[in-house]
Every structure is written in C-alpha cells, then in structure tokens.
UniProtKB/TrEMBL annotation:
Annotated coiled-coil segments of the chain: none
Membrane-crossing segments per the record: none
Upper lineage: unclassified sequences, metagenomes, ecological metagenomes
Domain ACT: 134-207
Pfam families registered for this protein in UniProt: ACT (PF01842), PGDH_inter (PF19304)
Protein name: ACT domain-containing protein
InterPro entries according to UniProt: ACT-like_dom_sf, ACT_dom, ASB_dom_sf, PGDH_ASB_dom
Species for this entry: marine sediment metagenome
Length: 207
C-alpha cells in the first residue's frame, strides 16, 4: 500500500537522524510499529530505517537488498515489535538505538497519508518536518534560547524554515529541532555550541 511507502521514506530519514544524534558504536536497535501501520507488511519500513541508520558506516550505497546482510556482518540486528493499539496518533513508527555512549528514541508518523512528521525525540514531544538540513540542540530550558539561536542563524544568512520545541519542565531540559534552508558552516556551529545553555548540538542532512 502507498502508506507503507510513505513510512519507509519516513523511517529512512529517522534512521539518518538517529545515526547523527547517536554517536558511538551501535549495540542494540529496536523498532516499534503502533496503530494501523502495525497491521501491514512493514519489512520495507524496517529496511528503510536500517539504510538510514547504517549508510554512514559504508562507502557503497545501501539498498533494500544488501542492507540486512551488511548489517548482520557488523553484528547489528533489528528487533521489531508491533502493537495495533494506537497511542497519541492513529499510527506511528518508533526507533530506539543504544550505543556505547547514548540511548536515543525517535518516533514519527505520517499525517493524512502524505505528511511525514517526527513527533518525539528522546521523550520530548517535538514536531519536525524531516527534510533538508536539520539542527538538533539539546539545551537547558530557560528564556532566550530561541532568540539566541535565531540571531546566530540570521548572522550567517541561514533561514529557519520550521522550529519545533520540546520541553521537560521537571528536569529543566529542552530540545530544539530546527529545519534550515541551507547547511550551517563550521563557524555557525561553533558559535551555537558556545551558547551556555547548549548541552549537545547536531547537524543532519535529511534529503
């Protein structure tokens, strides 16, 4: 069905995002399907995710045929679970990757059958369109964050297309997921990284 193709594309981009925000050696990978997508044949979706996650480790282009074999050679297998009970949205795809440094979880959904969205990163409810260059910033939750990030981007002639903000007030932590019109250069990243509220910063190309 066309919706499986949409989820395969979304999963590929989630895989690419996770490969950027989850540094270190991959130890464990889980994907979960919830809601209506869990009733479908989802192998292309899991393989799409694997391509996004593993591509940066290989010089050759990965595809639906070779990715499972090459992943196994690296000792990486993907545990898949399905739950037809929906949570928050009618259907969703979620990936959890554990490396020797971090644990990352990213969830996405396709709205209206055609609009792919990332809806959660590491327990932060944050909506983001997974396309183009994306800036992901883990930061302390306090006033002035959005303004400071916007100012630096503006200074480097980088246009902000969309910005998603997720907060965990109890922990005073937040996340910014910013899609940009062009990839920030090293100087812009350095300036952003020096902001005292920034804990981690990642740039990812999602197209």
């Amino acid at each position: 069905p066309p919706i499986v193709k949409q989820y395969a594309e979304l999963a590929l981009r989630i895989g690419t995002l996770v490969s950027t925000i989850a540094p270190g050696r991959i130890k464990d990978v889980e994907v979960q399907y919830r809601g209506s997508i869990a009733e479908m044949a989802v192998e292309p979706v899991t393989l799409g995710f694997a391509i996004g996650l593993l591509q940066r480790h290989f010089d050759m282009p990965l595809n639906m045929v070779n990715v499972a074999v090459l992943g196994k050679e690296r000792g990486i297998s993907i545990d898949e679970t399905k739950n037809t009970e929906a949570k928050d949205v009618a259907a969703s795809f979620s990936a959890k990757v554990i490396t020797d440094k971090v644990t990352r979880t990213v969830t996405g959904s396709v709205f209206g059958g055609t609009l792919p969205r990332i809806i959660e990163i590491d327990g932060f409810n944050v909506e983001m369109t997974p396309q183009g260059p994306v800036l992901v910033i883990y930061n302390d939750d306090r006033p002035g964050v959005i303004g400071s990030v916007g100012t630096i981007c503006g200074r480097h002639n980088i246009n902000i297309c969309t910005m998603g903000v997720g907060q965990k007030p109890a922990e005073q932590k937040a996340i910014l997921a910013v899609s940009l019109d062009k990839e920030p250069d090293a100087k812009a990243i350095e300036e952003l990284g020096k902001l005292d509220f920034v804990n981690e910063i990642y740039v990812c190309k999602l197209d």
